[in-house]
Amino acid sequence: MAKEEFRVYNSMTQQKEVFTTKEPGKVGMYVCGITAYDFSHIGHARAAVNFDVLYRYLKHLGYEVTYVRNFTDVDDKIIRRANESGENPFALSDRFCQEYLSDMADLQCLSPTHQPRVSDHLEQIKDMITQIIKNGYGYAVDGDVFFSVDKFPNYGQLSGQKLENHRAGERVAVDSRKRNPADFALWKAAKPGEPSWESPWGPGRPGWHIECSAMSAHYLTFKFDIHGGGIDLIFPHHENEVAQSCAACQESKISYWMHNGHVTNNNEKMSKSLGNFFTIRQITERYHPLVLRHFLISAHYRSPLNYTVSQLDSASDTVYYIYQTLQDCEDALSQHQGENLSDGLGKTGKKDPVSSAAEECIINLRSEFQTRMADDLNTAHILTGAFQEALKFINSTLTSLKKKQPKKQQLSMIQSLVNVKKELREVLDVLGLLSTSTYSEVLQQLKDKALKRAGMVEDDILHLIEERTQARKNKDFGKSDNIRAELSSLGIALMDVGKETIWRPCVPVEPAVLVPPCEQKATQAEQKPMEQQVAQPPAGDDAQTNEAEKKATGPAV
To answer: Residue 54 is part of which domain span?
Structure first.
């Protein structure tokens, strides 16, 4: 199968371009990280996960990737928060850097090659500022150093912003010392109670924008392949980076600027400043981290992603279905370990006896995955279509395998399962959805989260299952219906398999209502951040569930 050309959307040219690297087989990528003064929210998670998918995909394509993601640990927000709490600003920022790394590990984001901090790169920052001044693009005033945008004719090339739009007192602070109101700080003179470093312009600390120019150049040189971040960083942060880097080195050139869209809440940007955000930790307390990751890649990375609890519930259902199918497949294959199976050619050099249906399934899955990923990382609906068909193939084959089959046909079924499962795992791995835990561990973790959302423990469900079983024996189907419907409204599905009743998480009949912390009333202060409002359970038929039919259909996605 011919490989698709990888095309990425370049924010600088505002079009998709074929991805080519400056050095054959190698990629240099810099992504702006967090300002470490608080727990990170799911907007931060979206940027991290989307660029982690890019990192994984580039490695999947065979590139050697140097991935740099910084921490801002010197900033006004950090100093303000430290003063409020009476904490050392570096201790505070270090604490939240570690919390962020813990969140990233939960979300299965691979560790970047380098994770530099501003406080460790003051010499590189001062050297770059010195070069900018020497080249005529910067000027010092009273211990501050500003970048002169008038000296850089191409200012605005990334964002499309025009200099005449920056009138003092509107989008930029009034400072009569500036030659142009749009001039921005490269170095800030020391203030009482703030951390500072010695410099040629007096004690002070770096401005926000210069740090990324200096650190990216330090680790990747002035010429590298990808610079990424959230769409809100295009202006002023990335625009100023372009100006600074070019001012320090005329040869500076970044091939592709990539930006992910906002996460919205009720179609309004989710951010700390607006107070309508949820931290990663708040979500993963009640949903498995794989569920949050699945949700974050469920839309194209450049599109806005509107947050709803119902979408998390749906993502949870999908992840459970995937892992249950993989677990069932593994259980079945473990019974045939001595069948001389392989992932490709057998010992004879001939093709393993894979069914034509399995071959078609693998071809379709591979083709759809390659086509979508090569088209600017189009992860939207990537786990639908051919992926879902592959899961259905596994479940239907497992059902057929339970029946007595001729030896040759049985071997074909088993080998087909091996090959289709391998292809599914490869897709999940590139998307970062293949857990380091076992399938059974992930399934149990998903069940534990469902119990937490329902406000129950497993003994509660087992007790209700006993009650329902007794009600059915007594032909009290109204009561058994109500028990099943009540649990369903809480996100717990009861399933009758033969003479046994089991349970699994499901999408609640009425989705949970999630109220941002800023909107919670004082009387709700002690409520959990994702309090469920349970509707009256609807009446229903207590028909037996056909397990094979359930698996062949799969969850709604």
So the answer is: 7-166+176-285
How many angstroms separate the Cα of 14 from the Cα of each of 9, 107, 153, 229?
7, 30, 20, 16
Q: What is the pLDDT of residues 179-238, one digit of tens each?
A: 999 999 999 999 998 999 999 999 999 999 999 999 999 999 999 999 999 999 999 999
Q: Answer yes or no: do 224 and 334 share one domain.
A: no
Residues 463 and 434 placed together within one structural domain of the fold: no
Query: Parallel, antiparallel, or unpaired: how do β-strands 253-260 and 223-230 relate?
Result: parallel
Q: Work out whether strand 7-10 and strand 184-189 pair parallel, antiparallel, or are unpaired.
A: unpaired
In a domain, 297, yes or no: no
270, 321: one domain = no
Q: Is residue 422 part of a domain?
A: yes
Determine, yes or no, domain membership for 383: yes
What are the pLDDT digits (tens) for 90-133? 999 999 999 999 999 999 999 999 999 999 999 999 999 999 99
Are 23 and 142 in the same domain? Answer: yes
Angle between helices 356-374 and 407-431 (to 10 degrees): 10
Q: How far is residue 159's CA from residue 493's CA, in Å, rounded to a whole number?
A: 50
- How do 15-18 and 500-505 pair as beta strands? unpaired
In a domain, 48, yes or no: yes
Q: Encoding tokens for residue 228?
A: 């990424």
pLDDT beyond 50 at 542? no
> Domain count of the chain?
3
Which residues are within 8 A (CB) of 271 and not within 5 positions of it... i.e. 6 or more apart?
41, 43, 277
User: How deeply is 218 buried, as exposed, middle or buried, from its count of CB atoms within 10 A (0-12, 13-18, 19+)?
Assistant: middle
Name the residue among 556, 40, 58 with its Cα closest to residue 292.
Answer: 40
- Inter-CA distances, 511 with 223, 278, 411, 471, Å: 49, 17, 44, 28
Query: Are 468 and 432 within one domain?
Result: no
Burial of 362 (0-12, 13-18, 19+ CB in 10 A): buried
Residues 260 and 321 in one domain: no
Burial of 66 by CB count in 10 Å (0-12 exposed, 13-18 middle, 19+ buried)? middle
Same domain, 486 and 415: no
C-beta neighbour count of 464 within 10 angstroms: 19
Q: What is the DSSP string of 490-548?
A: TTEEEEEETTEEEEEE---SS------GGG--GGGTTS-TT---PPPPPP---PPP-HH
Residues 21 and 156 in one domain: yes
| Single-letter code of the amino acid located at 354 | V
The closest alpha carbon to 505, from 551, 446, 456, 555, belongs to 446
Q: Which long-range contacts does 291-295 make (Cβ < 8 Å, 24+ apart)?
A: 291/315, 291/316, 291/319, 291/446, 291/449, 292/42, 292/45, 292/107, 293/49, 293/107, 293/108, 293/432, 293/433, 294/318, 294/319, 294/383, 294/433
Full 3-state SS string of 421-438: HHHHHHHHHHHCCCCCCC
Q: Is the pLDDT of residue 172 over 90?
A: no
Nearest residue to 320 via CA among 422, 447, 496, 508? 447
